[in-house]
Specification:
Layout lengths: L6 H23 L7 H7 L4 H4 L6 H25 L7 H18 L1 H8 L13 H4 L1 H15 L18 H10 L11 H24 L10 H15 L5
Helix pairs in contact: 1-2, 1-6, 4-5, 4-6, 4-8, 5-8, 5-11, 8-10, 10-11
Length: 242
């Protein structure tokens, strides 16, 4: 049994939560680049010097927001995939994940802007944001790996090209995290599969960026249905059939 938390620790958790909630609200109204510890301090009725005891800089606050938002988005994707009872139905898992990611992003436009919008000038995300930032793509790659382990293949696999090296970091990441259960793929096929999976991941957030930043207006009548169509096309490109 974990030791009981002290009243001081509980109070610190409460105040930290209030600061993060205020900062997240300001992401929606002011945007990430304009986030200010002074403004957040006013929101929680604290002097700015007191807020610095919880977050020593704006960058520290941005990092905490990134980790929390990426964590929530990753949890939404993981839960959606886990919620598909028939684990062999990789198309259903794929579509459920896309839909869950969209639901979270539409419900949290300010946080989406922080994660996938214009970079904040002068801020560089530290290494401890990498793991939460890759949770969604790990879900997608696991689904692809399960589909390939069951025999799925792309409809057409182009001849090996000199661009194979462009996905070397992704191949290393997949191997490091054990995201594909040794599918029977040739040395030419595996990089091609990884390329297509990366295209799907970037297309997912590209479509969501167009929707949330207003670029689909006048082109698409139903963004939710449009994402479903994109998801299924991307799945078919990987050889995952609904």
């Amino acid at each position: 049994m974990s030791p009981a938390r002290t009243a001081r620790a509980l109070a610190r958790e409460t105040i930290t939560r209030e600061i993060l909630d205020s900062a997240r609200a300001r992401l929606g109204t002011d945007g990430a680049a304009a986030l200010s510890l002074r403004a957040v301090a006013r929101d929680v009725e604290m002097v700015s010097s007191a807020v610095y005891r919880y977050f020593p800089s704006r960058d520290a606050l941005l990092t905490a927001l990134l980790i929390e938002a990426y964590g929530e988005l990753g949890h939404a994707a993981e839960s959606a995939d886990a919620g598909v009872t028939d684990r062999s139905d990789t198309a259903a898992r794929w579509l459920a994940t896309f839909r869950a990611v969209r639901r979270w992003c539409v419900a949290h436009p300010g946080e989406f802007g922080l994660l996938y919008g214009t970079p904040v000038p002068g801020y560089a995300a530290p290494r401890d944001t990498v793991d939460p930032a890759t949770r969604v793509v790990r879900v997608l790659v696991r689904i692809v790996g399960d589909a390939y382990a069951a025999g799925a293949r792309p409809p057409v696999v182009p001849a090996a090209a000199a661009t194979t090296g462009t996905v070397a970091p992704a191949l290393a990441f997949i191997a490091e995290h054990g995201l594909m259960a040794e599918p029977d793929l040739s040395d030419d096929e595996l990089p091609e599969v990884v390329r297509r999976a990366l295209m799907a991941w970037t297309a997912l957030f590209g479509v969501l960026s167009f929707e949330l930043f207003g670029h689909l207006v006048g082109s698409v009548t139903d963004p939710e249905a449009w994402l479903d169509q994109v998801a299924l096309r991307l799945a078919a490109d990987l050889g995952i059939q609904a």
